[in-house]
Structure formats: C-alpha cells, structure tokens
Amino acid sequence: MGKPVWGTCAGLIFLANKAVGQKDGGQELVGGLNCTVHRNYFGSQIQSFEAELLVPELASQEGGPETFRGVFIRAPAVLEVGPEVEVLADYPIPSNKVLYSSSAVEIQEESAVPEKKVIVAIKQGNLLGTAFHPELTADTRWHSYFLKMVGDVGEGTSNTTVAVSEAASSSDRQTKYDLPIFR
C-alpha cells in the first residue's frame, strides 16, 4: 500500500525477499526488501550481544554520535542486497572466526581475509530493516528516522491516518506525525 514499514530482528527476516538458515518449510516471508537474510546468523540466544555500530546516515539525519549501540538477540544478518537497497549499518567480523555453526551449516572466515563486514541495517524505499533492537536502548534516533519516513509519505495518501501529537508547553516545539490507525 506504499506505507512505511520497519522490521527489527525477526521483522527484518519477514521483510526480506529471501532467507537462508531456516528449517525446512520455514516461515513464509512477506518480502519487499531486495536482500538475502540469514536467520540467527550470530547464533543462539546465549550468543546475544551488544556492539557499537557506525551509523553515518543516521547521524547525518538525526544528529548525535556517529555510533549506535546495537542490541543483537539471536540476530539475523543481511548477506547480500540489490542495487536499490541502501546499507545503513554493518558489523565487522574478525577473520578466522566461526560466525555461525549448527548441525547443518557452519560459516567460517578464511584466514586470507582480514575482516568481513556483515550488513545489519538497510533501507529500500519505504522499507526499513534492522537486525538489532533499537527499542531496547535509550537512543531514539532510529525511531525518529522511521517517523520521518512516515511523514515523507505525505498527507492525504490514506483516509486511515490521523494526526497524533502530545500537549506541549509554550517553550517546547512538538512535531506532528500522521500514523496509520488500523480499525
């Protein structure tokens, strides 16, 4: 319908056109993002982690530091993207390290490659995907970035949107966003 959609973690997998590392007959994908995602790329729940990510596009659009603290919980990773997909963040993987291992698949780096980067945040048109969980941090820049995507869709594109705002004191300036309300 042309409305912005943001998928985090499992949501990124659902929005991908192709996923690998799934069980036979795995989850059906919604699609839309021209990419291939590896489900649970970083391993199991116990291998969850946090990492500083370089996010120059986010910093240029939303201000703040050039890094963002990504919370990865049994996270996927984007293995490849189409030419229309904008890479917003990646994560460096040291060489000679097992990246993912299961009874069926093992992904390991070659020693000749000093460092590989795996993609963890992408945008394609009105679709945004992050392999990490921005909602688990106090940094709201990804949320602001997405709300601006919603605002960029323009007014009058749907009769199911309503203006949402909070009361503000005279010294505060509030931005109003048209968010979809599904009835």
TrEMBL record:
InterPro entries: Class_I_gatase-like, PdxT/SNO. Pfam families: SNO. The active site is at C9, H133, E135. GO terms for cellular component: cytosol; glutaminase complex. The keyword ATP-binding does not apply. Residues 1-21 form the signal peptide. Keywords: Glutamine amidotransferase, Signal. GO terms for biological process: pyridoxal phosphate biosynthetic process; pyridoxine metabolic process. GO terms for molecular function: glutaminase activity. It comes from the Eukaryota. SUPFAM superfamilies: Class I glutamine amidotransferase-like. This is Pyridoxal 5'-phosphate synthase subunit PDX2. It comes from Gossypium armourianum.
